[in-house]
Design goal:
The chain has 195 residues and is mainly alpha-helical. It has helices at 31-38, 44-54, 90-93, 97-106, 112-119, 123-136, 140-154, 159-167, 174-184, 187-194, and strands at 16-18, 27-29. Strands 1-2 form a two-stranded antiparallel ribbon. Helix 2 crosses helix 4, helix 6 (123-136) packs antiparallel against helix 7 and helix 7 packs parallel to helix 9 (174-184). Bound molecules: zinc ion. Zinc ion binds at residues 6, 8-9, 12, 29-30, 32-33.
Length: 195
């Protein structure tokens, strides 16, 4: 993936760094996508690509403005959607681990259909990708979603990593680490950490 392309369309060069939603993790966009972002008029694939990086819980991407398939609900300009502008569906991504993990980040909740699709993948590969995604981002929602996957998909096979997390944890992740702990560590050890 090239870093100098617009995060939304992944085709044009970056012209604008938009900090209004999160000064620590601004959107990096071309002029056209920037305008569509501010007018709540992103195309589904553009919304999806941004949600993979920033989560769908940011103000400009959240669920009052876009459906789960990325369709704009309150666009301030007409949105023209051709076939190539549609966001991926679970069916389209389920057999590819990285695409499926991307998809999981774009969901408001980690639902059973995504959990079951993730469970079909190799556990060690999933753990390794979940870990690197956790450390590569500063985004709280994305990090939390990775810990939810530990809790709901990986369970005890992630116990080594969950122990590491307790050795050096950040207080804002106490809750998500606790979910992961409940399913990954023996009850007594987990409880001692949480207390
Ligand atoms: Zn763009």
């Amino acid at each position: 993936m090239r870093n100098d392309l617009c995060e939304a369309c992944k085709r044009n060069e970056i012209n604008v760094v938009e900090k209004s939603d999160d000064p620590n993790q601004p959107y990096k966009l071309c002029n056209q996508c920037h305008e569509r972002l501010l007018k709540y008029s992103l195309r589904p694939i553009e919304w999806y690509n941004l949600a993979v990086v920033h989560s769908p819980k940011k103000f400009l991407l959240h669920d009052d403005l876009y459906e789960e398939d990325g369709e704009a609900c309150q666009p301030e300009e007409d949105v023209f959607v051709t076939k190539k502008d549609k966001a991926p569906t679970l069916r389209a991504v389920r057999n590819d681990l990285e695409s499926l993990l991307d998809f999981s980040i774009t969901r408001w909740f980690l639902e059973d259909d995504v959990i079951n699709a993730l469970k079909k993948h190799n556990t060690q590969k999933t753990l390794s990708s979940v870990k690197s995604r956790f450390y590569e981002t500063e985004n709280y929602e994305v990090k939390s979603r990775m810990l939810e996957i530990v809790a709901d998909v990986l369970g005890t096979s992630a116990s080594g990593w969950v122990r590491e997390l307790w050795e050096n944890y950040d207080e804002e992740f106490l809750y998500p680490i606790s979910w992961a702990t409940a399913s990954s560590l023996p009850a007594e050890e987990g409880l001692n950490n949480i207390i």
